[in-house]
Amino acid sequence: MDIFKAVRRLFFLFQELTIIYVCNKLPSMKYNYSVTDKMKNFEKICREQGVPLTVQRRAVLETLAGRFDHPTADQIFEDVTQRLPDLSRTTVYRVLETLVLLGVIHKAQHLGSAARYDPNTERHHHLTCLNCHKVVDMEDEILDQIRIPKTSSKEFEITDYSVHFKGYCADCASNKKKLKTSQK
Question: What is the SS3 assignment for 3?
Fold first, then answer.
């Protein structure tokens, strides 16, 4: 795909997102797996890589795989300690990093915000609320077809990409409108 077509498509996609936003409907990702499937895949990867399958790793992944809100490490810690009260925050951070290295989860880091974790490892894109920091998955075939630029002259190898849009979720947009109305 030609870069100019990609940029033009992104412009039109932004307009589409604005329309979607105004209609109060954000596109969401369809998860094609169950927690059980995710755990079976994790067990297989651990066996293949020779990585011990610990209770802590299992609990952290089960917790994350059951969520669709891209939680932070602290949010995962809060959930996991309900099952394993003696688990330390440091252990949760280490387990999350191990899961990222194994390719079982993705770490989504956007400038200026805390790292969030995503059990969906397929290419997809994100919408992030500037107010509440909610992250929503987004699928778009056109964005998935953007050609990765050649970077050999810059001594950098691109392995994947995702597009990150910023804006306001339906709840925050509604609250902003109510606040403006009440201030008049």
Answer: helix
